[in-house]
What we know:
Layout: E1 3-6, H1 13-22, E2 30-33, H2 44-57, E3 59-62, H3 66-77, H4 82-99, H5 105-113, E4 117-119, E5 124-127, H6 145-148, H7 151-158, E6 179-182, E7 196-198, E8 201-203, E9 215-218, E10 224-226
Parallel strand pairs: 1-2, 2-3, 5-6, 6-8
Antiparallel strand pairs: 1-9, 4-5, 7-8, 9-10
Amino acid sequence: MRTLVVGDIHSGLRALEQLISGAKVTPKDHLIFLGDYVDAWSTAVETVDFLIDLKKELNCTFIRGNHDELCRDWLLTKRENPQWLAHGGTATRDSYLRDNREDWSSHLDFYASLKNYYLADDNRLYLHAGYTNLKGIDFEYFEQSFYWDRTLWELATAIDSNLKPKDPKFPKRLTHYKEVFIGHTPLSKSKAVPPQKEANVWNVDTGAAFMGGLTMMDVETKEFWQSDPVHTFYPGERGRN
């Protein structure tokens, strides 16, 4: 069984379909999605429908992203958040309005069921953004940090590469887990890039909402598959560019 981690999709369903086919995913594999399923491209509704159906066929774990929470809030309240609309929410809102479905209970159930994080038996941690408590996820004061924080990746990129986890100067926040897999902070907005490791943190957000591709990675071997740049599947659309 492979454990395959998937970066931020941002409604790029066509790229996800290409990845699943290219990686030859089977029911024996465990797919871990790092959140941000919507906001950017026009197929938001279709993406969530696809993920709901995918869980019936494959072993899937779905992590909560900040964009998923923003979309859920709009579905519940119909209150239009200008920040959300400006950062991909307009395409998502239009996708839902275009579908003209009266009952969104299956989507609301999907958003409500998302996990803030997933800690595997091998002590690998998966979450959308980060955590701030020096003692780790069990001591986090604000659960919103799991899907909004950017300081974890900022910290990882600032560490002297010569420091080892047992070094007294190595950040205590990173010593609790074998590896941490995150999305949330795009590695590039202008071109295709591979996933990146800093310290023991892997960033798998390769800019699918912008000009990059969508990435799936085998967490054990570090082999990865990447879609064509997602914007090429949606000609004439801006995404979050």
